[in-house]
Specification:
Strand content: 5-15%
Helix content: 25-40%
Strand order of the largest sheet: 1-2
Largest sheet: 2 strands, parallel
Number of domains: 2
Shape: extended
Distance between the termini: 31 Å
């Protein structure tokens, strides 16, 4: 198989592999998740995690918020070639007018009760009540693991 005959996702994987050849101290990545499928996202997350643990400085350019939230310690917003803002990704992307509360172990029937309490006791407006969302990568990862009976979780 020739590289030029590979899919776009495989081209991205080859490019990522090239970026880490030779144990670099700094790696520049432009839209690293572009063109990747779910297994590629998992491989990228592993690769970036290992690079960070080994002390590699990663510079990511991305317009995808989850790329920044999952892989960056610091984010910089550029505009017209100037630094406009610089902060931790959750601070930079956070909305000061809204609060997100994630609760584990709450029965679905109690979601509305919690929302009612927040409104009546705290006077805050509850915009949305729904189950917490998983990323597609998390869903894929969970679906790819064999269950306790040795079968796939995926139908």
């Amino acid at each position: 198989m020739c590289i030029r005959d590979s899919s776009r996702g495989m081209h991205r994987r080859f490019g990522l592999a090239q970026a880490f050849l030779g144990s670099p101290e700094v790696v520049l990545l432009d839209e690293p998740t572009a063109g990747l499928d779910a297994p590629g996202f998992l491989a990228l997350a592993d690769l970036l995690g290992e690079a960070r643990r080994s002390g590699v400085t990663l510079v990511l350019a991305s317009h995808i918020a989850t790329d920044l939230l999952e892989h960056c310690d610091e984010a910089v917003l550029l505009g017209r070639t100037r630094v406009r803002r610089r902060a931790a990704p959750e601070d930079l992307l956070g909305d000061p007018e809204r609060t997100e509360l994630t609760v584990r172990g709450l029965a679905p029937k109690d979601r509305e009760r919690l929302a009612d309490w927040v409104q009546s006791e705290l006077g805050a407006e509850v915009e949305k009540v729904r189950p917490a969302q998983r990323s597609l990568t998390q869903l894929y990862s969970e679906s790819s693991e064999p269950d306790a009976h040795g079968g796939d979780l995926a139908p």
